[in-house]
């Protein structure tokens, strides 16, 4: 039985309970990339490629569609109108990614709702159903 819209209309965030993981030396790779206004596109691309092609210990890769830069110590900037569209910065890589593992999920940020029109998985689903 479907729940009424009021039961889920405000639910737009993903919560994760987990740990920071750093691989053993000598390479010591982290399982995350913190993106801020100084992060260059090539760094995001390198992290994406590493997580999806090189790392065999990553099961799910979450990528924000947007990040507002004025909200916390991780994403800090003074003007809330400045946003990074993380997934869009590397959209060609995201859209061309078709592997089952790691699973790739685009997620909303706290200031931008999830946009299914940009999500590569949703685009494929629509294509399958002829939409």
TrEMBL record:
Major place of residence: membrane
Single GO MF annotation: proton-transporting ATPase activity, rotational mechanism
Taxonomy, superkingdom: Eukaryota
Assigned keywords, A-Z: Hydrogen ion transport, Ion transport, Transport
InterPro entries reported for this sequence: ATPase_V1-cplx_f_g_su, ATPase_V1-cplx_fsu_euk, ATPase_V1_fsu_sf
Family statement: Belongs to the V-ATPase F subunit family.
Compartments where located: Vacuole membrane
Membrane topology: Peripheral membrane protein
Complexes and interactors: V-ATPase is a heteromultimeric enzyme made up of two complexes: the ATP-hydrolytic V1 complex and the proton translocation V0 complex.
Protein's UniProt name: V-type proton ATPase subunit F
Source organism (scientific name): Aureobasidium mustum
Listed Pfam families: ATP-synt_F
Free-text function comment from the UniProt entry: Subunit of the V1 complex of vacuolar(H+)-ATPase (V-ATPase), a multisubunit enzyme composed of a peripheral complex (V1) that hydrolyzes ATP and a membrane integral complex (V0) that translocates protons. V-ATPase is responsible for acidifying and maintaining the pH of intracellular compartments.
GO cellular component: fungal-type vacuole membrane; proton-transporting V-type ATPase, V1 domain
